[in-house]
Amino acid sequence: MARYSCLLVLDLPLAAALRAEPELQGNPVAIVEEGDERATILAGWMRGLTVAQARTIRPDLIVRPLSVEGVRSAREALLDVACSVTPRVEDAAPGLAFLDLEGTQALFPTERGLRTALEARLEETGLEGTRVGIGPTRTVSHLAASHRGGGHIVPAHSVREFLETLPVDLLDPPQEEAERLTRWGIHTLGELANLPLDALGSRLGEEGVRLARRARGEDLIPFRPTSAPLRFEEGTETGYPVGNLETLAFFLRGVLDRLTRRLRLRGLACRELHLEFVLESGKLFARPIRLAAPTLEVPVLVSLVRLALEQNPPGEPIERVRIVATPGGVDTAQLDLFLPPLPAPAELAVTVARLEALCGSGRVGAPGLEDTHRPEAGRLDPFNRENPETRAPVPQNGPALPPPALALRALRPPVPVRVYGTDGGPAHVEPLDGARARELAGGRVLHRAGPWRLYGEWWGESRFARDYFDVELADGGIYRMYRNLEDGGWFVDGTYD
Amino acid sequence: MESRVQKSRVQSLEIALREVGLAGRVRVGGPLPGASLHPAPGPEPRPMDEAVPPAPLSLDSLLWPPESRRGRLIEVAGEASSGRTALACRMVAGTTLRGELVGWVDLPDALDPRSLRRAGAEMGSLLWARPRGLSEALRCAELLLRTGFALVVLDLQGASLSRLARLASPIWIRLLRRAQEARATALVLVPERVAGASPTLGLWTERRRALFEGELFEGIEAYATVVRNRVGPIGMEHPFRVLQRPGGPPNPSRSPPTRSASVG
User: Fold this and answer.
1) What is the pLDDT of residue A86?
2) How would DSSP label each residue in B79-131?
3) Do residue A359 and residue B100 have CB atoms under 8 angstroms apart?
4) What is the ipTM score, two decimals?
């Protein structure tokens, strides 16, 4: 037998405002289109009055502007909670979602447990006031969520008893039909359900029949599951132009906190952030931030955003913040009993993200080799921990190490040098840039090997043609240096060590 | 037995002289019975020891003991081009080949991936972090040790000596504690000894000579002196040789000096 659950947010704009500013909970809050005293209150306390009128009744009324982005995020967060239980979810209206509970018994053996889990997850995402109802049809579950604070669980055999005493107003009938039903003395769903459909149709028309069928707990249209897109977007209005990074970090923390809570519900982590700031002049400032590893750590994400903004500031105060998170899977792996212990994948991902927050974006990863013959070519790949299942077993006596090999310490970028000597090779080397004298003091060439010529990639911008030398200088170092054949410039690009 | 003790004392005195900058200016020997005049290591290259082993390194047992991890802080200091980085790459190779993770905190941004590959390291097991400052580098190293990396190489050769010297002793003690808690190894590469008495093992490397054979550069011959050891004697010298192409032809990618090679 089918079972459905309903998640109902009665006042979505108000819920969105409370979600963005949890400290407003318990205070009278009104949502208006514009921040003017003459504006009409759209949601929250004393809907329909102007702000000035409402303030005469409640001087401590808190007024917040309607946030379209906040409402959309709250609606998506509601769907995230629903999708954390079952993939069969219907997004019926803003603030109204139905869950098909078929197959969820393995996760939630009892419907009471399911309701508790849903309420906890709604609270986790900042949608505390959301009502939950469970019933055999979507209509019954909706009524169970709407009636007296919600939270009702209606078994299939007691639908009639449950609906019997509910007021007709719960069906939200049109004004004309509602007045007629009141004149007829029909006040409860039980009374409405007992009316014959033919007679009701001849008097109230199609709308009357629909009301009566809903009063019996029937669904008028079939369940339409919607696939909630994996779109994680949160935003906030700062309320005033923010030019200070510390103040901005306060807003960023709240936005990122809501984002990560939603990601956690779906079992995902944040792989990439896309910042969008509306500046004081109305311009849009966009900046992508790619993370070295998926993470859900808010301090790490805040640090990364701060680093990105310090390196590339928007240049103007910010009025609106919007952050889109690209989700990524959290690595999980079964560790091996017979291999050395490794950090858990999630812990490793957090460490990589923290390192990136310390070092800066694009400065943490695994060393990689490029497919080129340029000696200095190297790159930084994303650090993907090797799957333990594919790791080769380690010999009991330890692995066989290759003979010790000479290492090169790269000088990035290569140090431009002045070279003396006319016999085809350098005889004396000194750096052109005095600021890099600590890396290369220079001096007389004591020993020299070379040249050997390397040229390649003539088909592209990265073409190179160089004569390489290995030199031992009087400063005590042994260096690799080359002469560019195109412009004749000399460079030292590494120290042997 | 007595002569060994005397020799060890002489070597300790030599190390102390080197630390105060009097290496090569003062000769050690004389009054102690049984201790002969011992030449102090100076800038002049000493004759090549025929018994210098290319492999296996006698240092392996010190740097990379075959037993399980113990929680150590190793400081490798020395002059330029004396094989410090080669020793670090070898430790990385050994650790990654065991299937463990290695972190390389690269303050000077000097790590060469080709050198790692040549040393035999598994690149996928190495996390390379390039901090912008000394304090960030130290925090990166601590973070990696806390996470469970078996070996963390902290390359501080880009930092100025004055800043390194100003680092307080508790910083190195904390690093050692982190390594001991994680039963991992922290390897610090520095141009001069800066960690004081904190390291479990301290090595000072010097180059004996550069191996320029004909017109090819083959590698370097160096030795590492144990200047600090909590679990063994100090003053021991470990010669080693690191080659461009160990075990292979001198340098197959390089043509004879008078010819050119196209690799395009």
Assistant:
1) 92
2) -TTSSHHHHHHHHHHHHHHTT--EEEEETT----HHHHHHHT--GGGEEEE--
3) no
4) 0.75
